[in-house]
Amino acid sequence: MNEALHTAATLRARSEGAAATLPGLLLQAERLAATILLGDHGRKRAGPGDAFWQFRAAQPGDPRRAIDWRQSARGDGHFVRETEWQAAQSLMLWVDDAASMRFASADRPSKLRRAQTLALALAVLATRAGERTGLATLPEPPRSGKAQLIRMADALMERGDVPDYGAPCPRVMPMGARAVFLSDFLGPAAAVTDALTAAADRGVQGVLVQILDPEEEAFPYDGRTVFESMSGAVRFETLKAGQLRDDYLGRLAKRRAALRDLCQRTGWRYQLHHTDASAEAALLSLYTALERRR
Question: Domain DUF58, which positions (predicted)?
């Protein structure tokens, strides 16, 4: 009985701890999303839908049934009635939760926290625009509404045993969806190539966001240094860390060039974000890039 009570108390404590963190992440994401002025959902363009958008002059090639004869009777020319684009789209998000993403230097947020916040802020914006959102790590299809945001925030905050480096989930995404992958992309490159290639084959385009801590870019180490992976599985000690700088920076640049090339070949966009940079600027850049993918 005492063991059962202890187990129940432990589970309750864990649940309360998760519940205390969950609203914080969602609130932070909503505040970040509020910095993006959507206007009227950013939708003002012609396309499939029911709401009237505008009349335009008929052009060669327009079918006869597209002409609005009542409007045309008021003038000397023929006019076509256009509706506002209202097609619901799906936004798929993948946030790397591997151990390497928990790295943070100085008083900066961890790469994981920045990735979680940006992803959830994008989901907030998409939901406000009437779109469906989903996580590539969840088996459920993308959905709309506030309840989905809560489910996503809950999933993003889950903790468990993770590898040192992450890789995109090999999930089949909805045809024509948009997607954003957020990671440091320091792990195996083949998995990223496979994921973006499979996505492109289904007409899925999006943005690949590489998130790095400034210390990972500067490599400010010299002399005797102990390097250890975030999980503690790998440990390396050297007396001459400064001699590793050029080789390390060269490999990092090579990885970045490979990611850019992969995005170019698959129709995606590559963006680099540092955790000491503005989250607002990163979100605006992401939102703009996704809007161009419509």
Answer: 55-256
Q: Which two tokens stand for residue 40?
A: 């009227």
Q: Which two tokens stand for residue 168?
A: 């995109």
The Cα–Cα gap between 47 and 85 comes to: 4
H helices, E strands: number in the chain: 8, 9
Local structure of 1: helix, strand or coil: coil
What is the spatial distance between Cα 105 and Cα 112, in angstroms, rounded to a whole number? Answer: 13
A 10 A CB-CB count for 220 gives 11
What's the full length of the chain, in residues? 294
Percent of the chain with pLDDT over 70: 83
Going 68 to 72 to 78 to 84, the CA torsion angle's sign is: negative
Which residue in the block uniquely carries the two structure tokens 């230097």? 105
| Opening angle at CA 105, ends 102 and 109, nearest 5 | 60
Give the residue carrying structure tokens 């920076």: 249
Q: Does domain 88-291 have CATH number 3.40.50?
A: yes
φ/ψ (deg, to 5) at 166: -100, 170
Distances (CA, A) of 1 to 8, 12, 52, 84: 11, 16, 67, 64
Give the separation between CA 126 and CA 43, rounded to whole angstroms. 11
Across-strand partners of 226? 237
Contact 45, 57 (CB under 8 A): no
Written as six digits, the tokens of 6 are: 């202890």
Would you kindly state where each structural domain of the chain is located, as residue ranges? 52-83, 88-291
Annotate 16-28 with DSSP letters as a single string.
HHHHHHHHHHHHH
pLDDT digit string (tens) for 62-101? Answer: 787 777 777 777 877 887 777 655 445 899 999 999 999 9
**Which H or E run includes 132?**
strand 132-135
Question: pTM for the complete prediction?
Answer: 0.76
